[in-house]
Amino acid sequence: MASAVIDSCLGQAGPLLGPLHFRKSQAVRRGTIRGTVAVARPAGVSLKGSSKAGASAASTRSQGVTRALSPAMVELETASLQISQTPEWKTLEDHVTEIERLHLRDLLRDAARSELLFHEHNKIISDFSRQRVTQKTIELLVNLADRAKLRKKIDAMFNGEKINLTEDRAVLHVALRSPRDKEIYTDGADVVPEVWQVLDKIKDFTDKVRDGTWLGATGQPLTDVVAIGIGGSFLGPLFVHTAMRTEQTAAEQARGRNLRFLANVDPVDVARALNGLKPETTLVVVVSKTFTTAETMLNARTVRTWLTAELGKEAVSKHMVAVSTNLKLVKEFGIDPENAFAFWDWVGGRYSVCSAVGMLPLSLQYGFDIMEQFLMGAHNVDEHFRTAPFEDNIPVMLGLTGVWNTTFLGYPSLAILPYTQALSKLAPHIQQVSMESNGKGVSLDGSKLSFEAGEIDFGEPGTNGQHSFYQLIHQGRVVPCEFIGIVKSQQSVYLKGEVVSNHDELMCNFFAQADALATGKTPVELRAGNVPDSLIPHKTFTGNRPSTSILLPELTAYTVGQILSLYENRIAVQGFIWGINSFDQWGVELGKVLAAKVRSEMNMCRTQDRKVGPSDGFNHSTTKLLNRYLEGKARLLYPEPEDVFPCDLIDADHCRPPSSYV
Ligand SMILES: O=P(O)(O)OC[C@H]1O[C@](O)(CO)[C@@H](O)[C@@H]1O
């Protein structure tokens, strides 16, 4: 049965290559690939008792309900079963040894190769020549993409198929930036009119706030906005805001206005977000897809109290609006549904910046027209992604080289290195999009992966990063890098008499770093430069460290949208090849459940006779640590000795009031 599934995965391509045929690649030796798994779970059988990630080839279980999959989805899920058992995968593993014999220093001498690896779409230039690839590598990666049915998976996403199997949802964030005249269906309904209905409402509302038609409770204009949200309801909008702040047209539109974010439940973040703001001039946007996220809801209540303490309860209707898919909870919170901006379950939180999640706060700050450009930029790259042949498709090439580096060459990380301060929040945003999407351990059908999926993303703008972690990426671990450069700076500073502007200086580093990583510096070169023998090992740069360079003409709302789409789609490609569900996030649940348990302990500790012990379900370590925290809290809450309650019963000593009070 199991081999039948794998055979069907292999199709006409030939017999199953079992574990005996598996030649250990470098990645396997490094431990990146965990070994081979020859057994796939039989089609049509749901995983009992497993996480909700279990879905069979013929049905999917979600929230206890088994649903039939469409024939298209059965085909796609089957294509994802054990991609590592296919001949295309194994050919790539064998190809690693060929690549390991080559050095980028030599590969870069081949101008024809560089030309092949140089791509341009709508003024976005991407240069893959510093990746450890040859033309053959690209061909083999494209073969793997075909085996994984990448084209069909992309089409399924754009066509509103429910490719998020474990949540039985379509993945249609691309519809959020679709022109009005397009049609995109899911569940038999065209979603584009709904998208534009909300966008029109955003334009209408933000125009009114910006031109002073919509005033606060005391009749003052609302010039300051605090957007409360976390994760996908925060990181994308923060990335775009940070990118736009210094763009000339956007900055003019934002004159006299303030946009702040409140994400962390830490009271320090609350204090910082509200510092210097006045309730009379502040509009609060509560952003939460579910409207249940503990941190966001507590912050929303805190800020509501801050508002109403000064302005009275009625002020909420003028000073608080919401973005959510859960309009029922918005209403229960006390926000008028008229002041709520909807989105849909087919938009994942981390993919929601083009919905009202980003469009509302950002349009309040910069005006809707500028933000519409952002949507158009994202749509432009979506169309390129949907239609261009894989070899010329920038997001596909980014995704394929990502898979090559991570899974086959055994480099698990990616450094995102924009050479502009305006993109300083790109890496934190992509960290969530990539790591929450592709940090998975099972394939679409729920069977354990035989290799490591996902990528560890981090980054910092250049040149700051150069003075921080670049030492490691030059002489320590191999970390594939993505350099992003901009031709025209948002700020042109030319000092009289200086030929090289600040921006030129910045960009010198953009070019230099990629070459330093690729070519390195050999002992022979060092000796020729009279470096003493004792220092040669320390000053040697091995080079051969892969990177991609992306060059954009300028950084405007439009190109920020393009960058977003490049990354979102790159990450989808990786997930599609690895055969995982990039659109669920069950891994964030367990911590939330345990936090709820701790929260209920804390609530109970308010009563003086509260007794906390191991029987409450915590292990010894957690009980002890938690009780230390509660003890400290007790000292703060009950400063008098008789007020101290015994909240730590693990160790009798801790039941006594702290000695300082006795
Ligand atoms: O928008 P919400 O529902 O408040 O969720 C916030 C974030 O929490 C997560 O569920 C992870 O904890 C993210 O996926 C999401 O972006």
Automatic annotation (TrEMBL):
PROSITE patterns: P_GLUCOSE_ISOMERASE_1, P_GLUCOSE_ISOMERASE_2, P_GLUCOSE_ISOMERASE_3. GO terms for biological process: gluconeogenesis; glucose 6-phosphate metabolic process; glycolytic process. SUPFAM superfamilies: SIS domain (SSF53697). Coiled coil: none annotated. Pathway: Carbohydrate degradation; glycolysis; D-glyceraldehyde 3-phosphate and glycerone phosphate from D-glucose: step 2/4. It catalyses: alpha-D-glucose 6-phosphate = beta-D-fructose 6-phosphate. InterPro entries: G6P_Isomerase, G6P_Isomerase_C, Phosphoglucose_isomerase_CS, SIS_dom_sf, SIS_PGI_1, SIS_PGI_2. CDD domains: SIS_PGI_1, SIS_PGI_2. The keyword Isomerase applies. Keywords: Cytoplasm, Gluconeogenesis, Glycolysis, Isomerase. The keyword Iron does not apply. GO terms for cellular component: cytosol. One of its GO terms (molecular function) is glucose-6-phosphate isomerase activity. Its EC number is 5.3.1.9. It comes from the Eukaryota. PANTHER family: GLUCOSE-6-PHOSPHATE ISOMERASE (PTHR11469). NCBIfam families: PRK00179.1. Belongs to the GPI family. This is Glucose-6-phosphate isomerase.
